[in-house]
TrEMBL record:
Protein species of origin: Arcticibacter svalbardensis MN12-7
Lineage: superkingdom: Bacteria
Domain AMP-dependent synthetase/ligase: 27-460
The EC number(s) this enzyme carries: 6.2.1.3
Name of the protein this chain belongs to: Long-chain-fatty-acid--CoA ligase
Keywords associated with the record: ATP-binding, Ligase, Nucleotide-binding
GO molecular-function terms, A-Z: ATP binding; long-chain fatty acid-CoA ligase activity
UniProt KW Nucleotide-binding keyword: yes
SUPFAM superfamilies recorded: Acetyl-CoA synthetase-like
This protein's GO CC annotations: membrane
Catalytic class of the enzyme: ligase
InterPro entries tied to this protein: AMP-binding_CS (IPR020845), AMP-dep_synth/lig_dom (IPR000873), ANL_N_sf (IPR042099)
Length: 637
């Protein structure tokens, strides 16, 4: 995908589409209203973005001003983003799940002048803290009946509905059109496009400064690597646009290539939406793929008999076919015929649940367990994995479409360098680029470091913290441990996550946890064992599996006790833990565990918005319960 040099900023991407790829009357966005999917053209999108720009210019918004978004994925997000970006405004998207105090901190730290709000629940949050945010001038609800929430409230910020904002912006648009065009032309690739706040697993939120060049170049090189993406593709977007992964890998890829975007109604309705819009590409997190895996296994085997035998036979054929394709020898005539039958009897039915047109999933945000990737490979459903952080725009590496090395996160993208550095001595073992790729290369393990076009400008208002992660040679230190394996990047874990037991053995929690997550009985697992004699865990069982096996009603999960003490449940989970422990070294095996009634959550402050466990917070919160695990007799090797 080659962009002309003048199309090198976020607001210029859609201009490139209507100038060189699609007529402006073509559909860009799809949104379900009531029971109907509405098609929204490029012209409609750009007209509404211009209206937003017009309104903001009337407010006195200028280049570099920060404007906030706290709303779900929707056309309104796009209009607002495009409108503020093309006059040089900076997008500050806030995760809707953050607490009021965290939202207040971000509004004040970023110096937000306006914030668009997506739901009555979120509006109530903003109204509670509005007077603690002296720089906030406008609150913009996207829904029409917001007045009932603002009546008799004494707040200093003005409130205007988004529809009214569009109306007022359009009324002045003719007078401001030339100014909007001039603002858009004045934006440079080095200018700030977004602040994305990330707290990681510890600490105060940090605003990651990403430039127009960061985003545009990241989207461009991803398309250069994944050439199968076509201008007529349809993305189904359900991950939050407040997260850099969805922002780049769905929204900006579509803005660059000319693909359509359909916005899913909710996670609960995602399965229905997939069948309705029939997407060709979806960005997702591993948990979605794990759910599809678990449901497929359950559906294929629960009735037993001939149906289960056909299902298991099909998976076996799929595995043989996948492995044959991965070697120099091609699948023979018999295997090709068997795979065709397996596809007709089993695989096609699973593919239909995704809409039947899916070219590939792209998985990011967390590590995809190797067995899940292999399962989809056996179904002949391609799952591309990518790796990166908010600080890297985010993509550093991505799987090549025709070369799946399960358990790795792909080849380094063009234009950057990725090194592996010894954690203790700081010696750099190797530096790899897209051009030095060697499919047989294997490196030692160490911290992953990167420099190049994907690296952030720094942390907003935090020069000292920026200097800690970006060294004098320009290397950004990711904090992730990994290596190169068969030329691809392979992630082991976060440095901060490493557990060192009392015997001095290093244990990486993520691969161990992923081993136990192969059990369909387990929803989440949190490993414990730093400076301890052995490994223990807090295990969250699958609610669906619990209810099916033990007949628990919904009320069971509302009981105040945090942990389930029922010996039958503990024994039921212990069966799988013992079985899966055989795949691990003895010092990695769980010797004792507690069963948590409900999952760790963002709302409880236990998970980051990208669903990573906040290790220190969880260990502190459940310290007394964890201590009891080291007072009880181990249930065995």
């Amino acid at each position: 995908m080659h962009l002309k040099s003048k199309y090198n900023t976020v607001p210029s991407l859609l201009r490139n589409v209507v100038a060189n790829i699609h007529p402006e009357t073509n559909t860009f966005l799809m949104d379900k209203v009531a029971d109907k999917w509405l098609n929204i053209s490029y012209k409609e999108t750009l007209d509404r973005a211009d209206a937003v720009s017009s309104y903001f210019l009337g407010m006195g918004i200028s280049k570099g001003d920060r404007l906030g978004l706290i709303l779900e994925n929707s056309p309104a997000y796009v209009y607002y983003d495009q409108g503020l970006q093309q006059i040089g405004g900076v997008n500050v998207s806030i995760y809707p799940t953050l607490s009021e105090s965290e939202i207040e901190y971000i509004i004040n730290d970023a110096g937000l002048k306006t914030i668009i709000v997506g739901t009555p629940f979120l509006l109530k949050k903003i109204l509670k803290i509005a007077n603690n945010c002296p720089g906030l001038e406008r609150i913009i609800p996207t829904f029409d009946d917001f007045d009932k929430h603002t009546v008799d409230l004494n707040i200093t910020a003005g409130v205007i509905g988004f529809n009214q904002l569009i109306k007022e912006g359009k009324a002045c648009l003719n007078d401001r059109k030339q100014q909007i065009d001039a603002c858009r032309e004045a934006i440079l690739p080095t200018d700030l496009s977004a602040l994305i706040y990330t707290s990681g697993t510890t600490g105060i939120p940090k605003g990651v400064m990403l430039t127009h060049g960061n985003f545009v170049e990241n989207a461009r090189v991803c398309l250069e690597m994944i050439t199968i993406v076509d201008k007529d593709d349809l993305f189904l977007s359900f991950l939050p646009l407040s997260h850099v992964f969805e922002r780049t890998c769905s929204y900006l890829i579509c803005c660059t290539k000319g693909c359509k975007i359909a916005f899913a109604q909710s996670l609960e309705l995602l399965a229905r939406n997939m069948e309705e819009v029939k997407p060709t590409i979806m960005a997702c997190v591993p948990r979605l793929l794990e759910r599809i895996h678990d449901k497929s296994i359950k559906t294929g085997t629960q009735d037993g008999g001939i149906k289960e035998k056909i299902f298991n036979w099909a998976l076996q054929i799929g595995e043989e076919f996948r492995k044959a394709k991965a070697t120099d020898s091609k699948p023979g005539m018999l295997l090709n015929m068997q795979q065709s039958i397996a596809n007709k009897l089993v695989f096609s039915k699973i593919k239909e649940k995704t809409g039947g047109r899916l070219k590939f999933f792209i998985s990011g945000g967390a590590a995809l367990p190797k067995n899940i990737g292999e399962f989809f490979g056996n179904l002949d459903i391609v799952v591309l994995e990518g790796f990166g952080l908010t600080e890297t725009s985010p993509v550093m590496s991505v799987t090549e479409f025709d070369r799946q090395i399960y358990g790795t996160v792909g080849r380094i993208i063009p234009g950057i360098e990725v090194g592996i550095q010894n954690v203790d001595s700081k010696k750099i073992y190797t530096i790899q680029t897209y051009l030095t790729f060697n499919k047989d290369f294997v490196s030692p393990e160490g911290e992953i470091i990167v420099r190049g076009h994907c690296v952030m400008k720094g942390y907003w208002n935090k020069p000292e913290e920026t200097s800690i992660v970006i060294d004098q040679d320009g290397w950004f230190h990711t904090g992730d441990v990994g290596q190169f394996y068969e030329g691809n990047l392979k992630i082991t874990d976060r440095i901060k996550n490493i557990l060192v037991n009392s015997y001095g053995k290093n244990i990486y929690p993520t691969p161990v946890e992923n081993t136990y997550l192969k059990s369909t009985k387990i929803e989440q697992i949190f490993l414990i064992g730093d400076k301890r004699e052995y490994i223990t865990a807090i295990v969250v069982p699958s609610r669906e599996a619990l209810q099916e096996t033990f007949g628990y009603k919904d009320e069971f999960f509302q009981e105040p006790e945090l942990f389930i003490e029922d010996e039958a449940v503990v024994s039921w989970i212990a069966q799988d833990i013992k079985r899966l422990s055989n795949e691990l070294a003895k010092f990695e095996r769980i010797k004792q565990f507690k069963v948590k009634r409900n999952p760790f959550s963002i709302e409880a402050g236990e998970m980051t918005p990208s669903l990573k466990a906040k290790r220190k917070i969880i260990e502190k919160k459940y310290a007394e319960d964890i201590d009891t695990l080291y007072m009880e007799e181990s249930f065995g090797e």
